[in-house]
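The following block was generated as part of the benchmark described in Methods. Ligand: 4'-deoxy-4'-aminopyridoxal-5'-phosphate.
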Amino acid sequence: MKIYLNGKLVDRERATVSVYDHGLLYGDGVFEGIRAYRRLVFKLEEHLDRLFESAHTLMLTVPLSKAQLAAAVIQTLKANHLADAYIRVVVTRGPGDLGLDPRKCPRPTLFIIADRIVLYPDQLYREGLSIVTVPTQRNVPEALNPQIKSLNYLNNILAKIEATNAGSAEALMLNAQGYVAECTGENVFLVKRRAVLTPPPYVGLLRGITRDTVMALARRQRLAVREEVLTRHDLFNADECFLTGTAAEIVPVVRIDGRVIGTGRPGPVTGVLRRAYQRLTRTDGVRY
Ligand code: PMP
């Protein structure tokens, strides 16, 4: 496998970064997870826009322009002969000294991994997921804004550990006020009387690209789509619930904290949106 590392394609074994890299020492860096379907990179521009916005807030210079970075992503896909792939673009602050001062890191590190996507088991999509609310709250936006897709994922990792300890595959995270925020790597939606609802980003969640895509697809299906502050009670009493993310796409949720959601089976609106999303991924994207 070839990895793009600081302007060169190198073998996986040689794709290494310094132990002084602040991405490793402090989680000082940003990333994106992107997918390619049948030689089409899905939502490439949106992912690169978000990467540059995250980097801008951190005052981290991405060493390539957006167009150059898009070309590097495609170069990496082609080098690995991948038609379907999961792509990880990472920009770190680069090597510095042991202090956290970013000014001591003159050269950011940029790498791109294009690998085969490990799909979630089919059974999960057929039967739906059981999730639990975890004690770890989603980061307060005023302290660490979830819109910054940074290398510091400890908030989400703590939540994931708690879900695993409770025997659940995914964690529902609330914000500091107790409102529904998101899961550890996916946004949350509910369906109630043919309205599709999801919490607004100010609650403290990453505005997912899949989330935006699904909202647009739902509107095209003439469903009412609204951003609303949601409680666990709203989720428990929804007709349907599903999660969205680049890797998982759209995953039905059928049980939350022991409460059965709707019929306890993946619902019809979730099914319609899943099929519409799959169609879009087959026709839309940057061809290579
Ligand atoms: N929330 C979090 C915390 C995430 O890490 C992700 C995955 N990037 C998402 C939501 C879903 O975002 P997207 O649809 O852009 O993959």
